[in-house]
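Thread: Newbie trying to understand structure tokens

Hi all, I'm a second-year student working on a class project, and my supervisor (Dr. K.) asked me to get a predicted structure for one chain before our next meeting. I've only ever worked with sequences, so writing a 3D structure as a token string is new to me. If someone could post the tokens and maybe explain what I'm looking at, I'd be very grateful. Here's the chain:
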Amino acid sequence: MTIFISYSRHDSEFVDRLIHELERHGYDAWVDREDIRGGAAWGASISQAIRQCQAVIVVLSPRSAASDNVAKELSLADHHKRPIIPLRFEPGAIPAALEFQLAGLQIIEFDRAGFSNSVAQVVQALRGLPHPAARRPSEQQIEPIQTRHKSPTGSLRRKAYWLLASILVVAGLIVTLRQMRVFDRRDRRGTIVQRHPAPAAGIAEPAPSRGASPEAKAGLASYKVLAVKLDPYKLDKRTLRLSIRVTVSRDTHGIGVGRNSFRLLVDGLALPPTKYPSEALRPQTSQDFEVEFVIPKTATQIALQVGDVRGQTGDIPIDLSAVR
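---
Reply by user tm_fold:
Sure, no problem. This is what the structure looks like when written as tokens:
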């Protein structure tokens, strides 16, 4: 089950902790961590993520209460009939812009019940939601028609938010297409823009398993491990630092490289990165990134999983015995 997290970036530390707990219970959390030029692809990705998720968790705080983006995300969630689970990270009044979507919903009070007990309430609320497969296909098909023919006595404020969000998405897509020079008629075949920063000092050469390539393709991008390094972390754990080159195909509109682009398969267990990029790559471009994981000191079999963890992925085996 995919959960969309609506929050203020000023509360990222709390949100990261919440995501870790949700993933530990088997849920896939979607968060916006991509700094995309002009906010164009950002608006489109937000809209698509809300349409495809099974529930929306909104983290309430004085910062998120003042965020226009949180109000727009809840408006989209309500429009697409996605269940909303509100939780309060810090005390604060609910602004008028959020009252309509949160009316009648029970707020999980993290500031009162404590983190562990509150997480248990969130998990209980998620388990109580209907399974996505239980939704009839006919309901998914007629949803846009039902939305168009709602009673004129509906909330004008809700309609205004939806109209504003639609205008922002369309305008943003136009800006993105222009930035990608989609409207440029010149033939740009064979031109790849390389952006390769110098490797970090002290990082060793890549160490894939014997006979394996330190490169894999996932979707419309290829991923190559340039360097690997192990550093002490705790008595029973180590930090694995990877330098990775991502190259985007010409047959795409670009990709986002972020937290969900990398997983480390450690003895059969998938671990998310503790340090990761947040970038948008255009078609026919290549860029190097630093990604870090915290792994057990006793780890034996390790492979880097690349690509969208919810879509096409590829695996790159890594031999720790060859890492200096």
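A couple of things are worth pointing out once you decode it. DSSP finds nine helices and 16 strands in the chain. The two ends are 39 Å apart (CA to CA). Feel free to ask follow-ups in this thread.
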